[in-house]
Amino acid sequence: MTKMVLCRKYQQELEALSQPPMPGEKGQELLATVSKKAWQAWLEHQTRLINEKRLKVFEPSTRQYLLEQMEKFLDNDEADQAEGYVPPSDR
């Protein structure tokens, strides 16, 4: 049976992640509140941010920035966009 979660991004019951996406308390919180679909969407968004903004992921300031952007993205707040990115539906 597939485990379901009330996804904070999509506000509906969706398939849950199979394991915490990061260690510690934050990982447990994400496991309980974020669907597999929302996490995949975040990973794609994060990759665009890293590539477009040429972020150095080993820098603590970059990791903090990405954590802040992740929270905004998952809460449907105004998250940063990759400047050159055009969603497939807009092409």
TrEMBL record:
SUPFAM superfamilies, A to Z: YggX-like
A family per Pfam: Iron_traffic
Entry keyword Mitochondrion: no
Superkingdom assignment: Bacteria
Keyword annotations of the record: Iron
Described function: Could be a mediator in iron transactions between iron acquisition and iron-requiring processes, such as synthesis and/or repair of Fe-S clusters in biosynthetic enzymes.
Protein family per UniProt: Belongs to the Fe(2+)-trafficking protein family.
Protein name: Probable Fe(2+)-trafficking protein
Species in which this protein is naturally found: Marinospirillum alkalitolerans
